[in-house]
Specification:
single chain; alpha+beta; 4-stranded antiparallel beta sheet; 4 strands
């Protein structure tokens, strides 16, 4: 069984969101079998900063849909998108 790495983009609801706290909440929301292999941050505009987690999921997990849904349910998350996906 292989694994898939997905580079994701998580937009907070506002520039006032504590990104360290949001990062911890995202880590806690991961579905079983998924793991985060690091975070980057991207200055978007007007003080808004997006979190860019790299998420590793098993190949047989059906893609990143479960992770996207879990991240979307976290408080202070405006949107979640997958930027890139590849096998590792």
């Amino acid at each position: 069984m292989g694994k898939v790495a997905a580079n994701m983009k998580v937009m907070p609801e506002s520039p006032e969101v504590d990104l360290d706290e949001l990062q911890e909440e995202l880590e806690g929301a991961l579905p079983e079998g998924a793991q985060i292999n690091g975070f980057e941050r991207d200055d978007v505009a007007f003080g808004l900063v997006a979190l860019l987690p790299t998420v590793i999921v098993p190949d047989d997990a059906g893609g990143t849909e479960a992770v996207e849904e879990a991240f979307g349910e976290v408080d202070d998350v405006e949107s979640v998108s997958v930027e890139d996906v590849g096998r590792i």
